[in-house]
Predict the 3D structure of the following.
Amino acid sequence: MTKSLMIQGTCSNAGKSLITAGICRILKQDGYNVAPFKSQNMALNSYITKDGKEMGRAQVMQAEACRLEPDCRMNPVLLKPTSDQGSQVILNGDVYSNLSAQGYYEEKDFFRKEIKKAYDSLAADYDVIVLEGAGSPAEINLKNEDLVNMGMAEMSDSPVILVGDIDRGGVFASLTGTMVLFDDDEKKRVKAVIVNKFRGDLEILKPGLEMLEDIIKIPVAGVVPYMHLDIDDEDSLSEKFRNSNVKDALIDIAVIRLPRLSNFTDFNALEYIDGVNVRYVGAPSEVGDPDMIIIPGTKNTMADLQWLRESGMETAVLRFRSTRKPIFGVCGGYQILGQSLSDPQNVEHGGNMSGLGLLPHHTVFEDEKVTTESEGILSDVGGIFQELSGQSFKGYEIHMGVSETDKNIISEGNVYGTYIHGIFDKEEIAKTVVKALLKEKGLDYKDVKAFDLDEYKQKQYDLLADGLRKSLDMNLVYDIIFGKGRK
């Protein structure tokens, strides 16, 4: 019979995703056939699986920790916000509908059944499922509709470990308060708590841990230190967005921080190369004089194009264009760089808009979403990145609009655009881009180090697992999963 464990947090960004990934990695290291699961995720940072299904990036990260191919059953419901009150709903990897918050709640019974089917199907294939909750499990106004925290724990009959973030302060109050707001059945499911992101002297904290255990009547499974790991974050909570340090960088790349930015992990491979700084800029005053500007993907291209104009960022990009340095647009960023955008069916924004006019294509938004893996050979790339021509690539496409081009990268002078997410993940492509940027500055580019992204990621997951093994009572965690009579 499949065993399970659910990781819930007292709040968003308490560290649930990484704790889940770390426990997945430990179980994998210890010989278990383990998979992650999150019934409902809200994120713009999504991924396309080999069979063309869309899922949240956090579960992709956790699948990597399990050394598994991502499977949309691991995240059956993905909500991609389109406004402050509505989201595009991805169900079992496919677009279901655009729904308001109220519309979504009205269909909760249907989604609950679909989630249960996905979980049961996944559980049939694995020894252990490690589930992740979302936000806080103690939202008392939403309890009756819950299908991602205690509602999911009940559906899967999973024991729960509750995680609190001590770095933001008030961890004892947040853990205690969450337990107080649980009903009796929910309290019985919580078998331990974890204090996460600790910095300081553990001996000073220990008396508080003992008092906490007396109050909530369940054990503290451990105190996890603030670990400096390089593992994919969830969209707006990413610390990457606060990075603006160009000191000592040979190459400075500025990524426009669009309000609805998606798939920022597209650029991780570039910043892993020695001497390269990737920073996210949200105002013209932050742009400076980079070596390349990237306009990334977005959940609403036309709305973010309007923001570019209203914020003055369009003027900053066009001014940068006059320097003849490269501008690179990915997915929605590629659409923005074109001549025009048309949305006759009100898929995103409605109406027509002129693009930045730096590339020759026109984009029309259609009802059907393109979700596919993409691989092949780059052809006819011009400008300073002409050495990309003939190189193999692998990535994925995920977009509503269609642009009239059959090229995988379109270029006009030193302006480039592509629909391919993950285009820079291929070691040779990232290396070629950086070499070209260095050459433009008259710097030696012969010794740009190769970088194996997958090997690097796997090392980070091992470091995460090592950190959890040292800080958690893993005998207790195993007892919670398998029972005290485990073999």
User: Anything to note?
Assistant: The chain has a mean pLDDT of 90. The longest strand covers residues 362-377.
